[in-house]
């Protein structure tokens, strides 16, 4: 448990002390100006999220996972999770770090949606009130879940990507996901190669059986891609929407002064309409490079994060 973690406990005490001056900061919404002096949990409504950090400060062999109720008490932990000088919410993951499981290849500093909030009587895994399901599943399963269908909206700037390591891994970071029981119906990537000045966004859809499907928004995801004509530079803000209604996955890239780019994916044959399949959003940085220099890293700053579901009442 986090309360048995002395180092992070001291971090909380420090964060609380530094946040007294901003204790009256309300939970953020899409219209609120971000306060650079406030910890992330006082700028953003993170009550139904927890966060995994790529560290193991209490030496229990697992990543440190911070529950949602500590966000509003001022939790932050540099250099992995903190408030930027402009008020944004910063996520950082180095190539070297603790991973979430034996089956995970890469490090992450990533929020995990927790619809149960601080009700620990509800199980984390399974079709419970902690997770949501697609409306393509049977009605009973919908009633057992915390919500039906889902929409994740974010505004983000990717600040850094890896520049060392295997050419197939350099420059990749996942900035948003839908995670299912074992698979990932949606993974949204940003990738910038070292010799290019701008990067691209692309989507991966993983059916439960069969090959993954990739959808490019503004340029090639290839490891030898040329400079994208419509690319996104580091530190350039953009927005995305990941939306599921039944058997339809819709993902949109939004940029100021440019037309939106949308991919609509038919997922009726992807296997997620089964009764045991449950969903949760993830957001932050999931480093997709484990071959680079240990100190090489990915970093992104979020300026908006909003999750909604049918039947989920906060």
Automatic annotation (TrEMBL):
Residues 44-309 form the Alginate lyase domain. SUPFAM superfamilies: Concanavalin A-like lectins/glucanases. Pfam families: Alginate_lyase2. The keyword Zinc does not apply. Residues 1-23 form the signal peptide. GO terms for molecular function: lyase activity. Keywords: Lyase, Signal. It comes from the Bacteria. InterPro entries: Alginate_lyase_2 (IPR014895), ConA-like_dom_sf (IPR013320). This is Polysaccharide lyase family 7 protein. It comes from Paraglaciecola algarum.
């Amino acid at each position: 448990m986090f309360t048995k973690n002395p180092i992070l406990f001291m971090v909380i005490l420090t964060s609380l002390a530094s946040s007294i001056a901003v204790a009256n900061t309300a939970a953020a919404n899409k219209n609120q100006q971000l306060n650079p002096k406030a910890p992330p949990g006082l700028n953003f409504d993170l009550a139904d999220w927890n966060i995994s950090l790529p560290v193991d400060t209490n030496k229990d062999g697992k990543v440190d996972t911070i529950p949602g109720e500590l966000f509003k008490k001022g939790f932050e932990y540099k250099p992995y999770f903190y408030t930027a000088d402009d008020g944004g919410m910063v996520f950082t993951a180095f190539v070297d770090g603790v991973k979430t499981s034996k089956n995970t290849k890469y490090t992450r500093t990533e929020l995990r949606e927790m619809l149960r909030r601080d009700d620990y009587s509800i199980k984390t895994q399974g079709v419970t009130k902690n997770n949501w399901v697609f409306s393509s599943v049977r009605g009973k399963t919908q009633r057992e879940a915390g919500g039906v269908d889902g929409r994740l909206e974010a505004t983000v700037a990717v600040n850094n990507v890896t520049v060392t390591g295997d050419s197939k891994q350099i420059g990749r970071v996942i900035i948003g996901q839908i995670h299912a029981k074992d698979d990932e119906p949606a993974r949204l990537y940003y990738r910038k190669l070292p010799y290019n000045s701008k990067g691209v966004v692309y989507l991966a859809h993983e059916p439960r059986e069969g090959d993954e499907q990739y959808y490019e928004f503004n340029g090639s995801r290839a490891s030898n891609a040329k400079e994208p004509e419509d690319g996104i530079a580091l530190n350039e803000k953009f927005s995305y929407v990941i939306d599921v209604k039944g058997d339809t996955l819709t993902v949109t890239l939004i940029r100021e002064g440019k037309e939106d780019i949308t991919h609509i994916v038919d997922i009726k044959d992807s296997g997620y309409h089964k009764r045991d399949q449950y969903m949760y959003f993830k957001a932050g940085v999931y480093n997709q490079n484990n071959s680079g220099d240990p100190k090489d890293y990915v970093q992104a700053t979020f300026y908006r994060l909003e999750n909604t579901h049918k039947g989920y009442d906060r």
